[in-house]
Amino acid sequence: MTSRLAERPETPPNPSIVIPFSRDTDFVERAILDQIHQKCAVLGSRTALVGLGGVGKSQLAIEYAYRTRDRSPETWVFWAHASNAARFEQSFRDIANCVKISGRQNPTANIFQLVHDWLCDEKKGKWALILDNVDDAGFLVEARRTGQDGQTSGIESGNPRSLVSYFPQCPHGSILITTRSEDEALNLVEQRDIITIGPMSSEDALTLFENKLGGVDDGSNDGDVGAELLVALEFMPLAIVQAAAYILRRRPRFSVRKYLQGFRESDRKRASLLDYNSKQLRRDREAKNSIIVTWQISFDHVRKIRPSAADLLSLISFFDRQGIPDALLQDRSEQINSRQDQRESTASSCVDDNTGYIDDEEGSASQSSMSDGFEEDVSVLRNYSFISVNTNGTTFEMHGLVQLAMKKWLEAHGQIERWKRQFIKNLDAELPTGEYENWEKCRALFPHAQSAAAQRPKEQDSLLDWASILYNAAWYALRMGKGVETENMAVHVMKVRKKILGDEHSDTLNGMEMVGLAHSLNGQWDDAEKLEVQVMETRKTKLGVDHPDTLTSMANLASTYRNQGRWDDAEKLFVQVMETRKTKLGVDHPSTLTSMANLASTYRNQGRWDDAEKLEVQVMETSKTKLGVDHPSTLTSMANLASTYRNQGRWDDAEKLEVQVMETSKTKLGVDHPSTLTSMANLASTYRNQGRWDDAEKLEVQVMETRKTKLGVDHPSTLTSMANLASTYRNQGRWDNAEKLEVQVMETSKTKLGVDHPSTLTSMANLASTYRNQGRWDDAEKLEVQVMETSKTKLGVDHPSTLTSMANLASTYRNQGRWDDAEKLEVQVMETSKTKLGVDHPSTLTSMANLASTLWNQGRWDDAEKLEVQVIETSKTKLGVDHPDTLTSMANLASTLWNQGRWDDAEKLEVQVMETSKTKLGVDHPDTLTSMANLASTLWNQGRWDDAEKLDVQVMGTRMTKLGVDHPSTLTSMANLASTYRNQGRWDDAEKLEVQVMETSKTKLGVDHPSTLTSMANLASTYRNQGRWDDAEKLFVQVMETSKTKLGVDHPDTLTSMANLASTYRNQGRWDDAEKLFVQVMETRKTKLGVDHPDTLTSMANLASTYRNQGRWDDAEKLEVQVMETSKTKLGVDHPSTLTSMANLASTYRNQGRWDDAEKLEVQVIETSKTKLGVDHPDTLTSMNNLAFTWKGSGKEIEAVRLMEECVQLQKRILGVNHPDSISSCTALDTWKAEQEDVALLI
């Protein structure tokens, strides 16, 4: 394959007229033409000419076009055939070529978008667009048709955006439409913009007749005879033109009077044509008797004077009536054998004038004679107004009524099968296979193939040719991603070949294989499997197990197994194919290498990445040696290996290969080749994994736009590229942009592929994921339930994609705080994954991690820890110590340890994750930054706020640079730093950051987004620390009310917001208000989470604190004892939360004057804190402060002062002199010392 040269810049042409017809010099001025000009002169107008077939609509439009050009040379005038979508597309291509739109040379360019954009550009100048023969506007206004009768054009089903949307509504352009149907016109224009075209006036009709006769008077053309004839012709322009052409060609031996006599005779007899199925012939009143009779008179004469021309018209009538290439018409070899049959079967005699369709003595002379004869036949048909030649001189078209009349005449005279046979033979000889290099020719011939699909022949030999046409057309449709068309055509092929050739014939099996491929394209894998098994077994019996075709069928079946998630079955077949090909063809044969690549792909699905890598390296190296470094198959092998590297987390290795593949593909195949675009998409995927989202976006936008132009907006590959770009938008936090793309992909997939197609289900899952990020959990849930249920029905309960859908729904349940529902699903996914995929499969490990996360939310940290340890150990063995998934599992375990208060253990893991991430992924990779933020959180819990601050600042700064100031992850890092400032008592610094986070979140995410509500709660918390309780209250109320509406009254985040507001009420001394809220929170959590859930225990402690403020110490004590005992059992004696509960109870004992009880607890808290948290941990210092106050209250003045002095020294060193806790302790110490001095003075 040679590389494709880039398009050279072209000089923009001057405005011109693009119309496939020459101007009619005999055109008769009609009054209605002025009305057309007036309507179309309105800026941005759309006008429709409506009238019967043959009434002269197109001729009026042609004349309007040329007059517009005459009046305004700076105006572009364009003509588009609009009888069907394929012809419409070709007309747009002609327009693009005329105006030299860049990119139009692409074999399957989205020409509609290119022309639309050009027309919209006011700088290009004024334009008028004429849409001729819009007799079925459905393909223009509908997003898609199913093509039930085989007549659907590729574009009709290949563009879910309605074609009418490509008609610009702009002030510098106008559109004129011709149609036989007012109903069709109303699909495109308003009622007021319809101009009804009737028959000509008698004066205009006479003028036209005389013009066409050339003004020659034969003596019989008196006014009465001419007028009588025009009345008989019903003043229809097409009938008048045909009659005049007939008379003119037969002069001087024929006159108007003789024609009128013949017309009346023919009209009385109705001939065979009008008698035959007249209702169908004149359906919707489209064909007047006058037109049919004039056609028959002319046709009968042509048959007598030049039978070969009549033969040519017979052949033409079977093609799509527009864009008929002359190459399809010049082979009429059937005529040699059947001409005598024709003479015997028709009533009229035929004169054989030897026009060149029989063999001559010399081949060149014969060829020349045939060419001359063909041109003469064309000339005759043009002279009698049966056909017209497009301005390119190589394609023909015929009026729809002429085509209809010709077909009915053939049917009435028993000639239909003969010419159908010739049509099929000619088309079969020209239509190539659907491979990439044939796409341009296939596109031009596809409308004729669709016409053939609706014209099944009766004879066996012709049926096989018909099947051959449909097979190649289905092949092309398959490559275009048109599943419906592919399946319809392929099923016809399969049935015909089975009936004629038998079930075991190789052509029959090829047909069945094509149907199977169509089923796969449509996601109908069970149907595909049935056919593929049948093909495989037949080939084994017929050809042998080791025949290349048999091996191909086995590989196809294995590929279907892969799609069904039956990877073990796929592996067995692929291994068998590979081993047989090695023996049969050799290790380095291209087919052997393909089978090795297929097996490696299955290994990837099984998570056996090392096995995949070994095979792929072997394939790549052999391909380089055998085929060359730049061979397309070599490039594919490199891309496959890069994909495995991606799965292994070896993103730098993947990137190197993918860059090499992409650059070579651009040079070797061209920038817009499908394989080049795939290589660019692969590289973008690696950039995404590396956190290089801007680089990924640039590539993905380029891939998406090129695929839209190259393959069409609704091609599966285009939809994939749109989904990839949406995924990048999600990573960038651009959720609205992601949503727009994903909705478009989902709707197009539903229309193009069907609601239950696997790709449609994936698009729905992607959109649900974006909804989750937007906090729209109910919307996400609805989609995910639909995806899960459909997947169960479509794919099976244990299909990997079904399991993924269940895991996604469980994730949404987690966000909704429905942890029991999430747990049930996740257990089911985990157990099924273990059975289906294996205990150590990456997807199984992910399911275990998901379940651990739910257990973690339920406060079941021991259960979560067990799972997470298992995931870590298996990941280390399976994936490697430094694999990104292994690092994630270590971070998950650290989080659990962190909740257990095992901060030292958490710190060790987080440091390891952070350092490995820096080495493996880079200092500024998003995952590295997350690991740094996690470590900062742990340091924060350890009271090491300065260390935490340094990390938080580093993370925030890098995210601002890397992701942008308003990225959700950046906002999170700012909130984390603000939280550290709060703990340091730097409330003003915290406030500044939190206000910025809140305002940005409102703008970026929306006022009611969960992350926005969190930012508001954080700021309110700072206000509380500053003693700005009214400001805090306003925010907390807003957060609470929004949470109730957005999340539900019993959502965990709503309950937290209620607790925060209650805490503020406590600070304001509004203890009754606080109590009501705390009771509500506590009761709801007991019901929702369980009595021993950590959050429930926190709410009980909060209520007890309020009881203390109310002096209800007994009530406080009961609750606090319950919290403490449950915490000891649930969390452990030395858990920080347990120590807090003990300190709370001690505080109540202090208030009750039970100094000894308080002291015992506080001593225990201090000792355990020193051991658990460290001597200088802030919580340890707090416990020392508490004990000092207890000693002071119990009269142990000296011990209290000494302990407080020690506490103050530590607080100044650890927290800083200006920290609120340091200041508070200093004030207490000074007071106590002053009291001691006063006592000493008194003594």
UniProtKB/TrEMBL annotation:
SMART domains: TPR. It comes from the Eukaryota. This is TPR-like protein. InterPro entries: NLR-like (IPR053137), P-loop_NTPase (IPR027417), TPR-like_helical_dom_sf (IPR011990), TPR_rpt (IPR019734). Residues 334-344 have a biased composition (Basic and acidic residues). Residues 334-371 are annotated as: Disordered.
